[in-house]
Design goal:
Blueprint lengths: L1 H20 L4 E2 L19 E8 L8 H18 L9 E3 L5 E3 L18 E5 L10 H16 L3 E9 L11 H7 L17
Length: 196
C-alpha cells in the first residue's frame, strides 16, 4: 500500500518537474526592487494574443543595468502616466532575464483596446537600431511556451507586433523582422483588430 502511494507521489512529482522544466525563471518585482501596483484587475485566461513591443530605452546586458531600466520604466508609468503599475506584462533584457510586470494574471496597460485580452512582452532597448540578443529571443520563446503549458495562453495563440495594432514603430524594425519568422506569427490582423 505504501509502495503504491509513494509511486503515485513520484509520478506526480515527475510530471510536475517535466511541466515546469520548460518554464524560465521570471524575476519577481521584489527581485528587481519594483513598486507594488496601486490597483489590479484580473486578466481572463487563457488569452490568445501575445503582443511584442520594445521599450525604446538603452539596451542592457547586465542584471543591475536591466533592473535599473525596468525600475525607471515603472516609475515613469506610475508617476508620469498614472498607470496602476508598469504597463507591460513582462520585460526581457539583453541578459536573457525576464522581469515581472502584471504578469499572466493581471491586466496590463500596454496597447489601448487590447489590454484585457492579451499579454505584452517588451524587449528592453530600441530595436530600430539594435539587434535583439539570442538570449532575449530564447527567453521570450520559453516564456510563451510556458504560458501555453500552464494554461495562461490558449493553444491557438498568435504573436503580433505592437505596430500591427496601433500607430507605433514598436517593436522596432529589427525585432519586427525577427518575430515575423516565429511559427505562431499572425501576419493579417484584420480578424482581431479593434474597429475603434
Amino acid at each position: 500500500m505504501y509502495l503504491v502511494h509513494y509511486c503515485g507521489l513520484f509520478i506526480f512529482l515527475l510530471q510536475w518537474w517535466n511541466s515546469s522544466a520548460t518554464c524560465p525563471n521570471v524575476l519577481t518585482r521584489k527581485q528587481w526592487d519594483g513598486l507594488r501596483p496601486v490597483h489590479v484587475r484580473y486578466l481572463p485566461r487563457p488569452v490568445d494574443l501575445v503582443i511584442i513591443q520594445h521599450t525604446v530605452t538603452p539596451t542592457c546586458e547586465t542584471d543591475e543595468g536591466c533592473a535599473e531600466i525596468v525600475r525607471n520604466i515603472q516609475t515613469n508609468h506610475m508617476e508620469n502616466l498614472n498607470f496602476w503599475d508598469i504597463g507591460q506584462s513582462f520585460l526581457i533584457g539583453g541578459n536573457g532575464k525576464i522581469y515581472e510586470g502584471p504578469g499572466w494574471l493581471h491586466v496590463g496597460a500596454h496597447t489601448y483596446g487590447y489590454n484585457s485580452k492579451s499579454v505584452a512582452i517588451a524587449f528592453i532597448g530600441n530595436f530600430n537600431k539594435d539587434e535583439p540578443t539570442p538570449k532575449a529571443l530564447d527567453a521570450a520563446k520559453a516564456l510563451i511556451k510556458c504560458g501555453v503549458e500552464e494554461g495562461h495562453l490558449g493553444s491557438n495563440y498568435h504573436v503580433v507586433a505592437h505596430r500591427q495594432l496601433i500607430a507605433s514603430e514598436s517593436p522596432g524594425r529589427k525585432l519586427y523582422n525577427e518575430i515575423r519568422r516565429w511559427p505562431d506569427w499572425l501576419e493579417n490582423v484584420s480578424s482581431i483588430k479593434n474597429s475603434t
